[in-house]
Amino acid sequence: MRRAVFLLLSIAACGAGAQSRPPKLEPLPEPPPSAPQEPGVRIPVQDKATVETVHRVGGRVVAIKVTPPGGKPYFLVDPDGGGNWMRRDSLEAALGVPLWLIHEFD
Q1: What does the DSSP 8-state code read for residue 38?
Q2: Which domain holds residue 58?
């Protein structure tokens, strides 16, 4: 008897679920065009000067080397990522190498 009641209830539940139809769905709108990963930055340098990327952090340029024609090369460094480029004649002063004692010989 329990089996018959369970069978009838399950058939009725399946029938009730099959009768409900979802509403008519609209197609999804087109996605907006993707923005470039990095905004364009214009760094004024002299004409015919060679510009090289020296150092990147996380895909962002933080140091470039500018070599003017017939002149001494210099570096433009963005230390904090705020877009404030500072001119340096070398990267040695800005490069802090950690120094600690590992082993001392007698």
Answers
A1: S
A2: 50-88
pLDDT of residue 87: 86
50 pairs with which residues across the strands? 67
Is 83 a domain residue? yes
The reported pTM is 0.44
Beta bridge pairs of residue 88: 75
Residue 36 inside a domain? The answer is no
CB atoms within 10 A of CB 75: 19
Q: Number of structural domains, the chain?
A: 1
Query: Is residue 61, in this structure, part of any structural domain at all?
Result: yes
Q: Are 101 and 88 in contact (CB under 8 A)?
A: no
Tokens for 100, please give them.
Answer: 């600690």
Alpha carbons 57 and 59: distance in angstroms, whole number: 5
- Answer whether residue 16 is part of any domain: no
Q: Which residue has the tokens 């933080």?
A: 62
Q: What integer pLDDT is reported at residue 6 of this predicted model?
A: 79
User: What parts of the chain have a pLDDT lower than 70?
Assistant: 13-21, 34-46, 93-98
Strands 60-67 and 50-57: antiparallel
